[in-house]
Model the fold of this input.
Amino acid sequence: MYIMNMLKRNSLLIALVLVMILFEVAIRSTGHGSLFSPSNFTNIIYQNSYVIILAVGMLFLIIGCGNIDLSVGSVVALIGAVAGVMMVNNEMNIYLSMAVCLLLGIAIGAWHGFWVAYIRIPSFIVTLAGMLLFRGLALIVLDGITINPFPSEYLSIFTSFFPAHRADAYSSTVTVTILLVIVYLVGIIYSRVSKQKKGYEVEPMYAFLFKHVIILFAIIASSLLLANNKGIPLILILIAIIVLFYAFVANKTVTGRRMYALGGNEKAAKLSGVNTNRLLFLSFVNMGFLAAVGALVCVARFNSASPMAGTGYELDAIGSCFIGGASAYGGVGTVGGAVIGAVFMGVLNNGMSILGVDANWQKAVKGMVLLAAVVIDVMSKKRVSN
Done:
C-alpha cells in the first residue's frame, strides 16, 4: 500500500525517467548518437525554454476555473514582429524595445482579462478571437516577410553562457552545482522540520527520500552535461528565476491561495471575500506578460521575427500543464508539475526528431499523450466522487 501511494505521488517523475531511458536505448541502438550528449542536452533546453515559460502562465489560468488561452502562439508572433520592427528595421535601443514588448504583452493580457473576468465571455471564445486577431496583426506588421538578423547585443542576453569563457565552464558549473545542491538540501530539510513542528502532515520518509534523490540526481547529471559543453545557458537561469518566483507565489502567498480557491469553487471564494473578477483578470494579464517574455526568447533563439512564429505554442503550453497534473476543472496543479510536463513534451519532441519520426506522427503521439493525461484526471475525479 505504501509503495503504491509513493508511486502514485511521483508517477509523472517516474514516467519522465522511463521515457528518457527508452529514447536513449532506441537512439543508441539505431546509431543516432545519444539523447544525453552534452550538446543535445543544451539544445533541449533552448528548444523548450518557451514551453516552460508559457506553461507557467497557462497553469495559473487553468487553476482558476479551468480557463485556457488559445492566443499565446499568435501573441508570441505579434510581439516578436514588433521587436523585429523596432530593433532591426528602426535600430531602436534594445532595452527600450524589450520594455515596449513587455508592456504590449500586458496590454493584450488585460484585453483578454476584461472580456473574460468582467463581461463573462468564455475564455475559449475570447482567446480564439485573439488567436485570429493577433496572428493577422503579426502578418500586417511584418508585411508577410521575415525580419533578421537581430542585434548581437540582444542575442547575447538570451543565447550566452555562464561563464563567458568556455575554458572556465567545467569548474564554474561544478561550483554552482555544489552550491545549488547545498541550498536545495537545506531548503527541503528546513521545510520538512518546520511542518513537523507545526503539526502538519508530512509524506513518509521513504517517499521523501525517493523523490528528492531523483531530483538531486537530475540536478547533478544535468549540471555535468552542461559543464562538458559550454556551461550554464543564461536562458536556463531566466527560466529558473521565473519558475521559483511563480512557485513561491502559488505556495506561499495569499494571491496563490486565492487562485486555488477560485478554481476550487468560485462562488465560495467570492462569499469568502475574494475579488474573483480581479483575480481572473490578473491571471490573464500575467499570461500576456509571460507570452511577451516567451516571444523575446523565441526571436533571440531563431534570430528572426516571422509572421508564422509561435504556431502551435498554445497547444504545447496547455499540454504541459495537463500532463503535469493540472485539472481540467481548475483548482489543481503545481508549477513544478507544469515544468515536468513541459520537459516531458520536450523530450518527446527531441527524441522523436532524432529518431527521424515523421512530424505528423509526432503530433499524433503528443495528442494521445495529452488525451491520456486528461482521461486519467477525469477518471480519478469520478473515483473520488463515487
Observations:
- The longest strand covers residues 161-162.
- The CA atoms of residues 10 and 211 lie 7 Å apart.
